[in-house]
Design brief:
two-stranded parallel ribbon
C-alpha cells in the first residue's frame, strides 16, 4: 500500500507542471487525497471488514468530490487530475500509471 501511495504522489510531479512543492500536492490535490482514502479503504475491504471501508469511501467523496468504491482495483502511480465528479465503481480495473480527468464514470 505504501509503495502505491508513493507512486501516486510522485507521478503528480512528473505529469503536472503546476505541482511545485510536496506540501501543496499533499494538501491541495483532491485526486491524491481520494486515492489515499481509497488505498486505506481497499485494504480494509480486502480484509473483509464490514461497513468501515464504505464509510471511508463516502467521507472521501464528501471531502474531494471523487467517489472510489473500496472494491475497485487501482494500480500504482495513478493521477486523478481535475477529478470533480469522477466515480470509480466496484468492478472497475484501473492500471498502473493511469491518468484520469473529470467526469469519468
Amino acid at each position: 500500500m505504501l509503495s502505491s501511495l508513493l507512486a501516486d504522489f510522485r507521478i503528480i510531479f512528473e505529469r503536472d507542471p503546476a505541482a511545485r512543492n510536496w506540501l501543496e500536492v499533499l494538501f491541495c490535490y483532491p485526486g491524491l487525497q481520494a486515492l489515499m482514502f481509497y488505498r486505506v479503504a481497499h485494504r480494509l475491504h480486502q480484509w473483509k471488514l464490514p461497513f468501515v471501508p464504505r464509510l471511508i469511501s463516502h467521507l472521501a467523496r464528501f471531502f474531494t468530490g471523487i467517489e472510489i468504491h473500496p472494491g475497485a482495483a487501482i494500480g500504482s502511480g495513478v493521477f486523478i487530475d481535475h477529478g470533480m465528479g469522477v466515480v470509480i465503481g466496484e468492478t472497475a480495473i484501473v492500471g498502473d500509471y493511469a491518468l484520469i480527468y473529470q467526469g469519468v464514470r
